[in-house]
Structures are given as C-alpha cells and as structure tokens.
Amino acid sequence: xxxxxxxxxxxxxxxxxxxxxxxxxxxxxxxxxxxxxxxxxxxxxxxxxxxxxxxxxxxxxxxxxxxxxxxxxxxxxxxxxxxxxxxxxxxxxxxxxxxxxxxxxxxxxxxxxxxxxxxxxxxxxxxxxxxxxxxxxxxxxxxxxxx
Length: 147
Prior knowledge:
Layout: E1 14-16, H1 39-52, H2 67-86, H3 95-107, E2 130-132, H4 135-146
Parallel strand pairs: 1-2
InterPro entries: ARM-like, ARM-type_fold, PP2A_B56
Family: Belongs to the phosphatase 2A regulatory subunit B56 family.
C-alpha cells in the first residue's frame, strides 16, 4: 500500500514586526476632540495629537500590554484622518514638520530577517503573507498621508 501526501500544506498566517525602538513613556492622555476645540486652539491640539502618535508600542512580544494607550493612539490617528479629510487647509507650516516626523517615526524601520531560512522567494500562490503586527496603527498613519 502506497501512502501519498499532499504537496499543498495550509500554512498559518504569520505575524511579523519590523525592528524599532519601543517608546519608554507610553502612557498617553486622551486629548479633547479637534472639532470641539476653539479655532485658535486647534493647531496646537493637532500638534499635540501628532506628537502622541509618535509613541511606539510593542505589538509582538506582549500584544496585550498597553491596550488603553494603544487605543488612545489609534483613536487620535483616526480622528486626524477624518479631520484632514473633512476640513480644508489643516496642514499649516507648523504642522507639516510634525506630521513628517510622525510618518518617519512610525514607518521607517528595519525589516525583520527573512522567515524562510532557505532563502526561497515568497510565492503568493503557496505562502501566506506576513502580517505586520503594528498594522492597526500603521494603516492609519498611511491613510493620514494619503489625504
């Protein structure tokens, strides 16, 4: 009797995270909503929210840590995306460098080593994509810059 094995093995979705320094002070304060602040306070509040979004969290070794603060950052990113989408002339000369810094801090990182030790190329028909563990925040940072 001859046993045959399937050449197609279902692989689990893998999560990976690039290498970056996790911020030491990760306790974030929920700031007032931009739409509820007075017009002369909005620019300063927007900059405060951008600076909060420069805090980096560990999504890999301890994904359940800092959940409250991760949610504060996610909510601030979401609010800024919505605000930039619905308002005109939001990005002022003072906000622009802060926004570029937030983009750099969140997105420029060293890639993890290849998960395939044999060095074979990624095959989209056979291999599951590697998911970035910090994607809940990274997606919103990308959306902010696409607006």
